[in-house]
Specification:
Elements: H1 3-7, H2 20-36, H3 50-70, E1 80-90, E2 93-101, E3 106-116, E4 119-127
Antiparallel strand pairs: 1-2, 2-3, 3-4
Protein name: Rv3235 family protein
Organism: Microbacterium sp. A8/3-1
Pfam families: DUF6459
């Protein structure tokens, strides 16, 4: 193993990782609060890969601009997590769909978690 490989993020098998469901609930709450403008996207940075974080930050900026154009102030979102479906396509990777009901609509959120350095990190988040 080279020095670069040694210090690079190390894949972690699922058996060495915690239950992903509590993290999925927290990520959903955090992401929806970011999009509503009541939480800073930087607070979620440690739980996202770089690409997924940039995608969430871009979407949060677009949401903020849309609220500003309509003159709507940021407000705490009210939602209920209806279900969480989890599958494991390969060891150390979880793909989940979280169904979230809000006051105006019900949304599905697709999340991919990868085990790196003995913790889960979201490598993809898509709010449909």
């Amino acid at each position: 193993m080279t020095l670069h490989e040694y210090f690079a993020p190390q894949p972690t098998p699922t058996v060495e990782l915690p239950d992903p469901v509590p993290l999925l609930r927290s990520l959903m709450q955090g992401a929806l609060e970011v999009l509503a403008g009541v939480r800073e996207v930087d607070q979620l940075a440690r739980w996202f890969s770089e690409d997924a974080f940039r995608s969430l930050a871009t979407r949060a900026n677009l949401s903020a601009r849309a609220r500003s154009a309509r003159g709507v102030p940021p407000g705490r979102p009210t939602f209920e997590i209806l279900s969480i479906r989890v599958c494991e396509p390969t060891d150390g990777v979880i793909e989940a769909v979280v169904v979230v009901a809000g006051p105006g609509r019900t949304r599905a959120v697709a999340v991919r978690l990868e085990g790196l350095d003995r913790r889960w990190r979201a490598s993809s988040l898509a709010i449909l």
